[in-house]
Write a structure and sequence with these properties.
The chain is mainly α. 47% of the residues lie in helices and 6% in strands. It has helices at residues 2-18, 48-60, 62-71, 81-91, 104-107, 128-137, 150-156, 161-173, 178-181, 208-224, and strands spanning 183-189, 200-206.
Length: 226
């Protein structure tokens, strides 16, 4: 059953996560009143260890290194949780509208799996090679709630055989592992008054496995319409 398959996937994910080693607890930095960043203890001084760290980070993730150099530590959102929840519930609430018939152009993109005229390549078993190619292109971003980054996936399943098999099962049964559906959202300060939620940008940290899965499907759709 799919439930048994999901249990097996959960066990595998725990084993993969163990490859990261013990988790280090990092407390977020809270700003003082007024939302002013605290100066770094090394402001105005050359720190060779910090310079080396930035250089290594730049080789791994250039965008993150540039953000650290130009922006310093990000502010911690001190807005009350209930207010944040209310704000984003209202912002992302679905407005009243009527759904009409799906346009033929859209239906053509998703042919019936049982139809002989459908493009079977979209629903074919996922090949380890195509999963590996997509994994190599994924940016080095933070993982979702499962804590598994792309780098560990490459280490745990070098040939992407396990990943391809799991994704094929999900594709065939048109279901997704529950752990792949969850995500964390953090608020990134953009500018201005930190007490104004308009000045914060929500950033969603989703499961890397789920993003890899949807990435492979996107690749297939792209090749189909080239």
């Amino acid at each position: 059953t799919f439930a048994e398959f999901e249990d097996a996937v959960s066990v595998w994910m725990e084993e993969v996560l163990a490859l990261k080693g013990p988790k280090r607890s990092v407390e977020p930095r809270r700003p003082p009143r007024g939302g002013v960043r605290r100066p770094s203890p090394h402001d105005g001084q050359y720190d060779p260890q910090e310079a080396s760290r930035i250089q290594k980070l730049y080789r791994i993730n250039r965008k993150k290194a540039v953000r650290e150099v130009l922006g310093g530590d990000s502010l911690f959102c001190a807005v009350e949780g209930s207010r944040v929840e209310s704000y984003y519930r209202k912002l992302f609430s679905v407005g009243g509208y009527t759904l009409g018939e799906t346009p033929e152009e859209v239906l053509a993109l998703f042919p019936d799996a049982e139809s002989q005229s459908g493009d079977s390549r979209l629903l074919a078993a996922m090949d380890p090679e195509e999963v590996s190619l997509r994994l190599a292109k994924m940016p080095n971003t933070a993982p979702g709630p499962d804590g598994i980054p792309y780098s560990i996936l490459k280490k745990a399943d070098p040939g992407c055989h396990i990943l391809a098999a799991m994704m094929t099962r999900c594709l065939r049964e048109k279901k997704l592992i529950d752990a792949w559906k969850t995500s964390n959202t953090v608020l990134i300060h953009k500018r201005g008054d930190p007490s104004d939620l308009d000045n914060w940008r929500p950033l969603t940290l989703a499961s890397c496995i789920a993003k890899l899965y949807t990435g492979v499907i996107a690749d297939r759709l792209g090749r189909r319409h080239l």
